[in-house]
Specification:
The structure is a homodimer.
Chain A: H1 5-12, H2 16-23, H3 31-44, H4 50-57, E1 62-67, H5 72-89, E2 92-97, H6 105-116, E3 120-123, H7 131-139, E4 144-147, E5 157-161, H8 163-176, E6 182-186, H9 192-207, E7 217-219, H10 224-236, E8 243-246, H11 249-262, E9 271-273, H12 279-283, E10 290-292, H13 295-310, E11 320-322, E12 325-327
Parallel strand pairs in A: 1-2, 1-3, 3-4, 4-5, 5-11, 6-7, 6-8, 8-9
Antiparallel strand pairs in A: 10-12
Chain A binds a DNA duplex through residues 2, 4-6, 14-18, 20-21, 24, 27-30, 33, 48-58.
Chain lengths: 335, 335
DNA sequence: CACCCCATTGATATCGTTGTCAAAATACAT
DNA sequence: ATGTATTTTGACAACGATATCAATGGGGTG
């Protein structure tokens, strides 16, 4: 049989309520009593029954990660960051795949939260940008932290990365290598990062007074295939750029393939840059020059500020923008 | 205020206990009563309070996925398969990163299961092969299903893939392309699949009466770097094989890089095969000939038989071996 | 010394289910 | 018609915590 509060209370010769006070760190317990209770707790190996706690106090010590069809390595990194935060605070993590296009999304998640008494949610793109959903969460007072939202319309906690700035810097780096005819592959239109990265690119180009050739700007969706298709199109035109900046690494890999098939060598005939530093960036040849975002750290922070919030420690940590890091590898050539 | 059993019982004019019987599908409820109760349940939108159910009946309708540092895309596939099974049965999924080397692994997980009243566990390699851990689960009567165990020593439910056979067939395919000087990169020694794949390779080689050149057999650990290092070593020797079979795609990508650096072209100068059909296999150039395992389906099945078991439907589904599929791409050349 | 205040403690109700067990209703056998 | 077995139902306890609120006791004040 498991050890209950009652057992502890007998052992420590106090009431069960006092034991409850101690394990919940409530104020107004005499120091001496507290010590005695903790001694008994340890001696008996007492761990509170979560179901009972949850039933009575309507909190579960569970947070949930919501995602919709993300890049696999991105998901793994996010999840790992959150998990580590949970582990250090004794929370548990449940995961929930969503369909951001489903009309029942809101209702489904509200039920889910209510049923499991989920203490808080963490959202990843493209969920991070579904304003009506975020508002619904606010309305129902469901605590949540948002990863990489494009704007901050709601009261939500958030963590973001400097996508705009990073794309700007990477573009500068490409220009510094002597390129001024640069193509760009856009990301998934529903992902907040797509626009930020594109704008960073455009602004860096414009500040140098270079032209943007619309034939070299292609709409992708972050998939390998969309990169490949974009590459095929670009390489079919009579004039090709000297460098292409793809909004993520998978699309850059797609371009690489289309280049190979055209007999173009990278970086000799055409330079390439990606974004994200996903595993493929370093496993492909030549290795991709790219931008690394501290995805795991961001997720970790999101989980921490979320838990800090519903534990009433709002001051300690807050919403925050993380800096990305330029990673120079082999796919960029100096002209 | 949420709707409770009490509300339903009043509305349907029966006792709470009878409502409980209906929502738990217990026997010995008059058909007519059942109908009336269900009507009220729907009318009021009643959903049972999980905390209360869990407290009283010691089940949570939660299953957990345990993993230790797997390949990221593998994890995402596994998780997705499990999640879908959960969704269709109303279960929830919590995830738990483990350290298979930790001496506290068993204790940690036992506590975790007990605290959350986890109904069942799903284990991935290398956890699948930790016999003392599996025995501990048996001893504590913790339901679990194991993905890709190397042997079936315990009573555990399992799903596996035919790694041996698939490696055998892929090797045959390589031989059919005219190769008889073939290298092999082994996988992580703690992963069950590593030996199976190696044995499949060796047996296919031997049945053709070919030699295995020990200098071409390298120990890897499934990482890109270990593949790269193995490639460097192999390509430094005076005689190099005409083909190399790497136990997974990441290592094959590593070999590819080392080949490129040596000025060896793939598949012109050396042929290559991988295993797993991970995203990189199709995003690298030339695309890898490899073996695809139905990872998501396997995980889905594991979750289903697990839940079927503790819902007393043992006959319907059982442990099962899944077939892999040979995927022929560009990295293999006919001599 | 009487009084009040506040920190500390505990008795008891409560959360919303399921488990136990006995009562009531019905079916079946004689 | 009577007794027995079986199905159906409900009253009430129990799961193990927290919430409420009152009781206790020591310290300070006038």
């Amino acid at each position: 049989m498991a050890v209950t509060i009652k057992d502890v209370s007998k052992d420590a010769k106090v009431s069960i309520k006092t034991v409850s006070r101690v394990i919940n760190n409530e104020a107004n317990v005499a120091e001496e009593t507290k010590k005695r209770v903790l001694l008994s707790v340890n001696k008996l190996g007492f761990r509170p029954n979560k179901s009972a706690q949850s039933l009575r106090s309507k909190r579960s010590f569970i947070i949930a990660l919501l995602y919709d069809n993300p890049n696999k390595s991105y998901l793994a990194d996010i999840q790992s960051g959150i998990f580590k935060a949970c582990k250090s605070t004794g929370y548990n993590l449940v995961v929930q795949e969503c369909d951001y296009k489903s009309p029942e999304l809101n209702a489904t998640i509200l039920e889910f939260v209510e049923d499991l008494k989920i203490d808080g949610l963490i959202l990843t793109p493209p969920l991070s940008d579904m304003d009506d959903f975020l508002e619904d969460l606010d309305k129902h007072q469901i605590e949540h932290a948002v990863i990489a939202p494009s704007t901050k319309k709601t009261e939500s906690l958030y963590v973001s990365s400097n996508d705009y700035e990073a794309a700007y810097k990477l573009t500068l780096e490409i220009i510094k290598h002597g390129h001024n005819e640069i193509g760009f592959i856009k990301g998934h239109p529903k992902h907040s990062a797509s626009n930020l990265r594109f704008n960073g690119f455009i602004d860096a180009i414009k500040i140098h007074g270079f032209d943007v050739n619309d034939a070299w700007i292609k709409q992708g969706n972050f998939s390998f295939k969309s990169g490949f298709d974009a590459g095929v199109e670009i390489f079919e035109s009579d004039r090709i750029p000297t460098a292409i900046f793809a909004s993520n690494d998978s699309m850059a890999a797609g371009i690489m393939k289309s280049a190979h098939m055209k007999g173009l060598k990278i970086p000799d005939d055409i330079s390439l840059a990606g974004f994200d530093d996903s595993p493929i960036a370093d496993e492909i040849w030549p290795a991709l020059t790219t931008v690394k975002q501290p995805v795991e750290k961001m997720a970790n922070h999101a989980a921490k500020i979320l838990m800090a919030k519903f534990n009433g420690l709002e001051e300690t940590n807050q919403s925050k923008e993380f800096k990305s890091e330029l990673i120079i590898r082999e796919s960029l050539r100096t002209l």
